[in-house]
């Protein structure tokens, strides 16, 4: 009896230790995030001229840091999700790579679109300084809260759309509907449909090309030695142009011809370097799809890293754009946003916050994009990553408003729906009635492999999880109006407190 009682006591102690450990891990991430926000507040207080508005800058820095954490937790999943879902890189490796390249992109080339946050969305510049500060403060806090909610429910949303909704909502609350540049808002709304469709079509088309040139060939190894270097060349050329036009636009703005020449040069370099590498990797490789797909592993990781760099350069403005506008307005004493100054310390808060948010809260959304929408391997993930960059490039050249977040997720949908279409097409007219297998010996499956294939065809299985399609699409549509409504309410609350 004493032994039994002792065992029960030990089990209770072990359970208590396990619960304490799990609780500690659950509280660690919010604790680290809170420390970051406090450091951002202290940093802001020492980075501006001391005066009666210092507390406003400190509060703005806390909100900007909070938004940066949410951008890292939600938005970066679109870049690293396919790489993790295809098992090309581990979760820890993905977090490490993305954190470095996101921070590098934000610090080295970030902030180019900061001036567009309010200038292109609000047609009126007649706000006094205090009103303008409250408009930007409400917009930043509302967008951060909405992205936080989206991350909590596991929905990858566009942080750009959240900021847009925030600025529009607080602008309307401050000066009425006439202050909003509605054609711009209409263009943004159109991107809800345009972006995922373009991304899905591009990814599905690329996957179809790879299937026809490599994976559906009898001699897959020989085909891979020819075509994989070509796809790598396309990747290096596209990303050279992508970084020149999107990722490095703050420090370098080449013209169209320079960008095209840059793409050709890097495409040639990619082909030259990858030729011997592919040949070496394919030596003694089995002539199977699973083995050939591993040749796309390294290009996939490189493309995900470059997407993270470009994302850091572009989307750091979503975290610190309104805050930079607040700092500029307080320093100049005008509610004018034509030329927003971007101090390095403001940019650093955004860069560090994005990387920290990714490391602390990013895994959940990374798994959603990479694993829960559809099954990915290295080839499908490579198609999703490269098509995202191609689609953004083409859309930017044509002046089409698109969301990189929607494109990336739409690309994952695209490869999944293409596989589902091919599976259903192959199933038509080939299913064998179950009863016939027991009545007519000629209808029996010749091999276990044939039996499994017929079973799969008969099932007509869905390769894209529909509930994720519906929930993500709903979150996309709701983002702008929800953040706008929340921002308007926050502005009215601030105005009531200040007034």
From TrEMBL:
GO cellular component, one term: membrane
InterPro entries: Phos_transporter
Pfam family of the protein (one): PHO4
Segments passing through the bilayer: 26-49, 55-76, 88-109, 129-150, 162-180, 192-214, 226-244, 256-274, 295-313, 340-361, 381-399, 469-494
Signal peptide bounds: none
GO molecular function: phosphate transmembrane transporter activity
GO process annotations (BP): phosphate ion transmembrane transport
Entry protein name: Phosphate transporter
UniProt entry keywords in alphabetical sequence: Membrane, Phosphate transport, Transmembrane, Transmembrane helix, Transport
Natural source organism: Devosia equisanguinis
Keyword Transmembrane listed: yes
Subcellular location: Membrane
UniProt record similarity statement: Belongs to the inorganic phosphate transporter (PiT) (TC 2.A.20) family.
């Amino acid at each position: 009896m004493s032994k039994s009682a002792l065992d029960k006591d030990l089990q209770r102690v072990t359970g208590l230790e396990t619960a304490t450990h799990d609780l500690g891990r659950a509280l660690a991430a919010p604790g680290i995030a809170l420390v970051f926000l406090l450091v951002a507040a202290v940093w802001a207080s020492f980075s501006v001229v001391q005066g009666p508005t210092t507390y406003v800058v400190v509060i703005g820095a806390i909100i900007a840091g909070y938004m940066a954490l949410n951008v890292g937790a939600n938005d970066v999943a679109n870049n690293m999700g396919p790489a993790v879902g295809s098992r090309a890189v581990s979760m820890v490796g993905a977090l490490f790579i993305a954190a470095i390249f996101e921070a590098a992109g934000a610090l080295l080339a970030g902030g180019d679109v900061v001036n567009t946050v309010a200038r292109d969305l609000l047609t009126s510049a007649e706000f006094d300084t205090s009103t303008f500060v409250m408009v930007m403060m409400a917009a930043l806090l509302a967008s951060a809260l909405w992205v936080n909610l989206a991350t909590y429910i596991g929905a990858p949303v566009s942080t750009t759309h959240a900021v847009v909704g925030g600025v529009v909502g607080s602008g309307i609350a401050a000066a009425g509907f006439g202050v909003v540049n509605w054609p711009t808002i209409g263009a943004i709304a159109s991107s809800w449909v345009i972006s995922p469709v373009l991304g899905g079509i591009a990814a599905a088309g690329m996957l179809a090309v790879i299937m026809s040139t490599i994976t559906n060939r009898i001699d897959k190894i020989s085909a891979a030695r020819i075509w994989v270097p070509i796809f790598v060349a396309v990747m290096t050329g596209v990303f050279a142009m992508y970084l020149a036009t999107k990722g490095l636009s703050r420090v370098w703005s080449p013209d169209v011809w320079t960008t095209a020449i840059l793409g050709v040069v890097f495409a040639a370099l990619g082909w030259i370097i990858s030729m011997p590498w592919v040949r070496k990797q394919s030596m003694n490789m089995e002539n199977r799809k699973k083995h050939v797909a591993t040749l796309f592993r390294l290009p996939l990781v490189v493309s995900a890293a470059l997407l993270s760099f470009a994302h850091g350069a572009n989307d750091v403005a979503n975290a610190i754009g309104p805050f930079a506008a607040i700092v500029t307005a307080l320093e100049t004493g005008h509610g004018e946003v034509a030329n927003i100054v971007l101090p390095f310390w403001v940019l650093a808060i955004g860069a560090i916050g994005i990387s920290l948010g990714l490391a602390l809260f990013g895994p959940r959304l990374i798994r959603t994009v990479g694993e829960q929408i559809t099954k990915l391997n290295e080839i499908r993930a490579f198609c999703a990553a490269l098509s995202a960059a191609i689609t953004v490039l083409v859309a930017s050249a044509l002046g089409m408003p698109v969301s990189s977040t929607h494109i990336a997720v739409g690309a994952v949908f695209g490869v999944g729906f293409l596989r589902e279409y091919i599976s259903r097409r192959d199933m038509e007219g080939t299913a064998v009635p179950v009863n016939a297998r027991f009545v007519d010996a000629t209808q029996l499956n010749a091999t276990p492999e044939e039996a499994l294939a017929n079973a799969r065809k008969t099932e007509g299985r869905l390769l894209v999880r529909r509930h994720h399609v519906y929930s993500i699409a709903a979150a996309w549509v709701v983002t702008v109006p929800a953040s706008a409504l929340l921002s308007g309410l926050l502005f009215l609350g601030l105005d009531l407190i200040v007034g």
